[in-house]
Design goal:
Belongs to the thioesterase family. The chain is built from eight helices and seven strands; from the N terminus they run ββαβαβαβααβαβαα. The protein is of the alpha/beta class. The longest helix has 19 residues. β6, α6 and β7 form a beta-alpha-beta unit.
Length: 249
């Protein structure tokens, strides 16, 4: 298990010492790094798959969760810029999609732009909804149940749910209090992945990501709800493999 420093943030489940590209995976609200184990299994060893572990969950449960998107982006960016240099692609799901956008902004300001940003299961950064799930335990649990994500298995275990609530609350607060002006852009290409029955993102909201890049834009629609990345994993992996094949020339 990681013990200190940047290894607490960066999990490599299938290390690829000879990898020529890196994929940084950023989880959803309440999510954790192991969610991306299938991605590491599918793309390694050619791709250095880094799954980010946020504070406040699993082996980091003793740390205070971060409930501000900009602070979380600053922390993730600081860790990533210390990693061995490789071309970086960002993949974020739900909360992780907005976080990936903010990390991409910091990478570009730092002179090390990502190759591409994959924004999965999230409306465009400037497409605001007045959501308040983080305000009470009941509303958090109702939201988890509605989305039927990886955290929904905790609902039947009161002790585990109590342990998970601080991280869930912080994540939802970070997502729900985040604001982004409509003219905020990155220069890297953006590929948006969305489920055709996702209650969190309409097709119009997904397509609105086009306003946030001066580069290429691509929208991919999959069958499924908010966690189509799991139910349609083979199709999502096909998109990622094609990206890395194209990038390799």
């Amino acid at each position: 298990m990681p013990s200190s420093g940047d290894d607490l943030w960066c999990r490599r489940y299938r290390p690829g010492p000879a990898a020529t590209a890196r994929l940084v995976c950023l989880p959803h609200a309440g999510g954790s790094a192991p969610f991306f184990l299938p991605v590491a299994a599918a793309l390694s060893p050619d791709v250095d798959v880094v799954a980010v572990q946020y504070p406040g969950r699993q082996d980091r449960r003793g740390e205070k969760p971060i409930d501000d998107m900009k602070e979380l982006a600053d922390r993730v960016h600081g860790v990533l810029r210390r990693q061995p240099e490789l071309p970086v692609t960002l993949f974020g799901h739900s909360l992780g999609a907005v976080l990936a956008f903010e990390v991409a902004r910091r990478m570009e300001a730092d002179g090390r732009p990502p190759v591409r940003l994959f924004a999965s299961g999230r409306r465009a950064p400037s497409s605001h909804r007045d959501e308040r799930a983080h305000l009470s335990d009941d509303s958090i649990m109702a939201e988890v149940r509605r989305l039927d994500g990886t955290a929904s298995a905790l609902l039947g275990d009161a002790e585990m749910m109590r342990a998970a609530l601080p991280a869930l609350r912080a994540d939802y607060r970070a997502a729900e209090t985040y604001r982004c002006p409509p003219d905020t852009v990155v220069s890297c290409p953006i590929t948006v992945l969305t489920g055709d029955e996702d209650p969190k993102t309409t097709l119009d909201e997904a397509n609105a990501w086009v306003k946030h890049t001066t580069g290429e834009f691509d929208l991919r629609v999959f069958t499924g709800g908010h966690f189509f990345v799991s139910t349609e994993a083979d199709a999502v992996m096909k998109v990622l493999r094609a990206h890395f094949q194209d990038a390799a020339g």
